[in-house]
């Protein structure tokens, strides 16, 4: 996989801590950039890195990285990245995700890579406290010191970097935010006819007349699942609702990292109207049979699922956090609610059911908003333009 023929184009190396980020977050982008650069993708080898190689048509390099702090393994990775950059001599190294950013920017600095770019897709330290927060801040400050250019994914991330004084370097947002935009031709409800939707509803034991809420993401406390399940349970007991209700949960449980409360797990397992389908590589069928996306996350960078749901025509109930409040416009394509507030989730879910006409109006707005601001071609062209500008400004 390392032996594709170069066409004497400038060399660009994209890195992430784990290959799933390259596979999912940058889908299609690397193939587009490969028309203008010789692109290498560096991360640990697994099925996701293989997918990147096959789908994007770019070279891939095996450089295992640890998500957690692991001093010995991190030093080994740093050395491997340094050797990679010295051997390949890229013009640009561009990292996403925290650990890849710190190690890639440091190695690229010492390997004298002229353009060292990092995109902050989200920040962990604002939600942490004490020594751990100080350590995370120090790591991000080091990352920014070694990078030549810093790109926050949205205004919220930019504000946090500024407020915590992570760097004095200019902070630029590519296009309107989000690392890759959304493929509006792929995320299109018109691709799913009534027959397909009816069959899926039947397979999930959801009646045709049910009003369906959906959540997509990891089923962990940090995503607001505990509050969502409590709110849904209360909503089911509300009298005079015009519909029966269903809640689809699309995503994996992560019991070791941020486990759900035992009572939340019990409710998910015992409530026949909560359907947990696990991780799905294609979420579109589940979005197509749903009425509202509920995304009560506690923190985000710039959530792809809200963009994807919007492209499918779904109004969204989202927390007032970074990214979410940059995509959703209150009263136009969804509702913005306080963080960690199960009563606010409950009230928004109830109101959008009772005011179905207003909900329908929102559906007519949301795809247009996504298409005009966040479709992939807008993001890709803006990123390419930025690369060319950086190349032009290199001091020779």
Explain this structure.
The protein is 44% helix and 15% strand. The chain has 16 helices and 12 strands. The protein has helices at 19-25, 29-33, 47-56, 71-88, 98-110, 130-146, 155-163, 194-203, 225-236, 262-270, 284-288, 304-311, 324-327, 342-354, 356-374, 376-392; strands at 11-15, 38-43, 59-62, 92-96, 115-120, 149-152, 211-216, 245-250, 274-278, 292-295, 316-319, 334-337. It has a 6-stranded parallel β-sheet with strand order 3-2-1-4-5-6, sandwiched between helices. Strands 9-8-7-10-11-12 form a 6-stranded parallel β-sheet, with helices on both faces. The longest helix has 19 residues, at 356-374. The two termini are 33 Å apart. 43% of the residues are buried.
